[in-house]
Fold this sequence. Notes:
Elements: H1 2-15, H2 26-36, E1 48-52, H3 60-65, E2 69-74, H4 77-89, E3 95-98, E4 111-117, H5 125-138, E5 139-150, H6 155-158, E6 170-171, E7 188-189, H7 193-202, E8 206-217, E9 222-232
Parallel strand pairs: 1-2, 1-4, 2-3, 4-5
Antiparallel strand pairs: 5-9, 6-7, 8-9
Helix pairs in contact: 1-4
Amino acid sequence: MTDIKDWYEEAYKNKGIKAQRRYPNEELLRFLGVNFFDESVKDRSDIKVLEVGCGSCANLWMIARENFDTYGLDLSEEALLLGKKMLDHWQVEANLKQGNFLELPYEDNSFDVVVDVFSMNCVNHDNFLKAIKEVFRVLKKGGVFFSYTPSQNSDAFINYKPAKKIDGFTLNGIHRESSPFVGNHFPFHFWETVSYRNALINAGFSVKYLETVRRSYHQEEDNFEHIVVYAWK
């Protein structure tokens, strides 16, 4: 993952906080609201949440502010420096660590929740399957994985050229100039919904929620779809 790390180090160094959104992903907010914001959850400080690929902490500050026991992992040192500034801005704390989601630097059965928002897609198919197993390993029994990841129904995958396919799920980046996320010149993985559900089940998860979210770009000329999953160990 050296090439991916270098790409993100440069992006965060050159663009600073603008390299990532400043505010949390909407589907992540929905997930937390549905599962952790009712009277049955008395103290969220007892709930350990890890975000893999946390970047500059656009999601993580909100998780920390809602009083979860908050952890973030990212390949990029530059991202984590910005993330610390983001956390300081919101006057919250999280445990940040530089590392690789293919080899999560945490003990087995450590977390109640693992979050991936558009990060684990930066690898080829075999490595995505490896990442799923790592998420399963670090989750406690009864823990839940939230995933927000690209779908093969996206025009970026359907009309992928001049990019090339690394495997049946992965492009060597987004190269078409009119495509959303053009310039992401690293492995870019897209799931098909049935295959993703089956991969999670094969890893040991129970998939209780799987839906898609679709939005248009460039005056509705290009569409990009994400798969949203809640999967329990």
